[in-house]
Amino acid sequence: NYGEPAAEESSPPSQPSEPQGALGMELDTLTPEIAKRLGVPNASGVVITAIQPDSPAARLGLKPGMVIAELDRQPVQDLEQAMKVLTDVKEDGVLLLVRSQAGSRYLLLKP
After folding, report:
1. If residue 107 lies in a helix (H) or strand (E), which one and from where to where?
2. What is the DSSP track for 6-53?
3. Which DSSP category does 84 fall into?
4. How many CB atoms lie within 10 A of CB 15?
5. pLDDT in tens, 3-13
6. Sign of CA dihedral 80, 89, 111, 101
7. Distances, alpha carbon 45 to alpha carbons 30, 53, 82, in Å
8. What distance, in Å, lies between the first and last C-alpha atoms of the chain?
């Protein structure tokens, strides 16, 4: 439930991703309902559903409920696209555009 109280949703939830091994985060599709609940209406991308302790994602300050809107300056269209990029992150990392109620910011996530 991404840190928020559960709410009735009109569509069944999608299956969240498996943990992103070296990066240490799980993702799910961002629906309009979830975006509104997270305080980022009109956002697109994927939502972080879990962060593994002591992972690169945790050290970068990523938290469940944050939205990844871009990967390497390319808009994230869906979970499948995000998974393709994030499973093949090179040593120099991947640039994330992260959105939350606190605003938007770019972060460099390295494995």
Report:
1. strand 103-109
2. ----SSPPPPPPPP-TTT-EEEEE--HHHHHHTT-TT--SEEEEEE-T
3. H
4. 9
5. 544 444 444 44
6. negative
7. 6, 23, 8
8. 26
Give the gyration radius of the chain's Cα atoms: 13
The total number of residues written for the chain in this structure: 111
Decide the pairing of beta strands 46-51 and 74-75: unpaired
* Nearest CA-CA partner of 22 in 59, 53, 49, 55: 55
**The residue to which tokens 């949703």 are assigned:** 9
pLDDT tens for each residue of 14-68: 554 444 567 999 999 999 999 999 988 788 899 999 999 999 999 999 999 999 9
Contact 68, 48 (CB under 8 A): yes
Extract the tokens encoding 108.
């460099």
Q: Please report where in the chains the tokens 């770019």 appear, as a residue.
A: 106
Spatial contact of 48 and 70, defined as CB atoms under 8 Å apart: no
